[in-house]
Design brief:
Strands 3-2-1-4-5-7-11 form a seven-stranded parallel β-sheet, with helices on both faces. A two-stranded parallel sheet has the order 6-13. The chain is globular, with a radius of gyration of 19 Å. It is built from twelve helices and 13 strands. By secondary structure, the chain is of the alpha/beta class. Helix 1 packs across helix 7.
Length: about 300
Amino acid sequence: MRVFLTGGTGYVGSAVLESLVRGGHQVDALVRHSEAAARVQARGANPVLGNLLQSAAWRDAAAAADGAIHAATEYGPRVREIDAAAIDALTTLPRSKRFLIYTSGIWVLGPAPAPIDETAPLNPIEIVAWRPAHEKRVLDAASAGFRAIVVRPGVVYGGSRGIVGDVLKDAANSLVRIVGRGDNHWPLIYDRDLGELYARLVNTPEASGVYHATDGGAETVNEIVAALAEHAPTEPSIRHVPLAEARKKMGPYADALALDQIVRSPRARALGWAPTLHSVAGNAARLFEEWKRGKAA
């Protein structure tokens, strides 16, 4: 199958690209510059130069594909505008048997101290307050002929990027700061397992709607940090930063790090998807090695 992919050099998009190429799909990956083009080409994709706000540069490539995956994540004050522009372009492509997979995230669910699944109502925290409306726009495209899918990944781990990658870096630098008491749970997902879910969704013609992507664990931040600290080059200091103090420096991102969630993924598992890793704490040594390799790359 031919798949148009945004965010192919990003954390989630890289994992998706690798899974699709490994599965024999032809991937057209949107990139912003020649350096990124060389990276995706080396990994088996066809680069398409452009950016999300200028769809005229990539619309033909997206229209020629059997479907699209929007995995790009923009940061900064224009994140909502840029994401909306991508949805505008992708939902107005020719619709004949086309799929559209949109990448959201578990923070749209809000606090979840008891396990919840894809049927849970949305209660987004401030940093992603705009995202439920974007999910709805994608899901509403199903009425116009799309196979519309929303994926909500947990906190992604693996390699040197992401939130867990930041914890690994801090542990290696001998000081880890935990926002709040640290007894909150982070729903997690290994990057390669996440990529495999996207590939399975592409390959399953009946798949549509919302899918969570979590590994089924229920680890607290304290447990994660303690396990990673054991494998640091030197024993790091661990400091708990009160949420109010963290907000002054980090803004609403602090609330995301302090969010307590236990999130399950029954719809994804019903497709036959089974994560290979189920724990950060239980794979701390392996993840430190992956982090070192990723940092050196």
